[in-house]
Amino acid sequence: MRLAGRYLMNTYRRPPFVFVRGRGCYIYDHRGRKCLDFLGGLAVNALGYSHPRLTRVIRRESARAVHFSNLFHHPYQGPLARKLAEWSGLDRVFLTNSGTEAVEGALKLARLAAHKRGTEGKNRILALENSFHGRTFGALSITHPMKYREPFAPLLPGVEFVRFNDVADLEAKFDDSVCAIVIEAIQGEGGIFPISTGFWSRARELADHYGAALIADEIQAGLGRTGRPFAYQRHTGLPDIVVVAKPLAGGLPLGAILAREAFAETFSPGLHGSTFGGGPLACAVALEFLSVIEDENLLENVRERGSQLRSELTHFANEFDFIREVRGEGLMFGIELTVEGKPYVDGALREGLIINCTHECVLRLLPPFIVTERQVHEFARRFHKVLSKTKRPGSVPAEPADGRNRTALAASR
Question: Catalytic one among 37, 166, 217, 240?
Fold first, then answer.
């Protein structure tokens, strides 16, 4: 911690813990203290920590080759691409290092497809209010909250934000100059807000009508988090491009752009690339990750444990009047409070629970897919103590700063 304070850039506020190992749904600090991780490494550790099948593959492949240049084939990129295509219903894959890099590549692909169709001025991008897509310039440009964007302005031109789940606003802003609309099927960093079926369907219709790409950001909600392979699968109509990352390689850096053939074919050699994206070690682990989900029927566990967790949280909402709303699907939940959330995150850590807070008042839960019935009960017991014992902090506004009624919008789903 002393060396981190001296030499690392000041970009995180970290509590005074040094975590040194993990197993299953638990992590341990340098003093041996055990914590139940219900944040899952921010949705990365979907199989928990030290999963034996992932560990076995890492040991095997690290002894063979960690990296080959993307100028050559290796045994795992093709099979992984096929598996992702099968899960998503799309056709082709480009492998990246991270989610934000996948978003950047998706925007390039959408813009390139518009250019190759010879449409003049077709370069606008629509994104949603309350969205979060990453920290690089393109991804940041389509991220809505000003606290992320304003310090780095000016950002990319041609981006416009649509009111969340507002079909009329979508129709007003969509025209022939739009090359892409980017949608999180469930807004994660934004507070666990699901997109409505009506909004998704209309976005699909408008994208088809105007020849634009519908891009689904599944970085946090995808690859099983909701109990489906992808969160957009609760709606009718495939996206044109999908971006994934977080859990894909079980904790190793790996992301992907998935696309329908009509868009994927616009990329040709030299137009896009990545030095590290899709290396043999990361791809082998990603294949094993997807196989574990299938072999152990973990999507069913996500649905069952998600139903159990929702029941527990609903009881808490009835008991504690400062809980405004519980939202989520599968193992992705937001608990919106009428008060500041950080004291409850701190209190949870003291009780041996890892959670976090987004949007200042939404407690976020992203437990691993392997979480057991007993561990959900353990979480509920500890979390009840946190809600009971924490001194109630100051209230937050009933409406967000932009005046939208979140509860009404969430209900519209």
Answer: 217
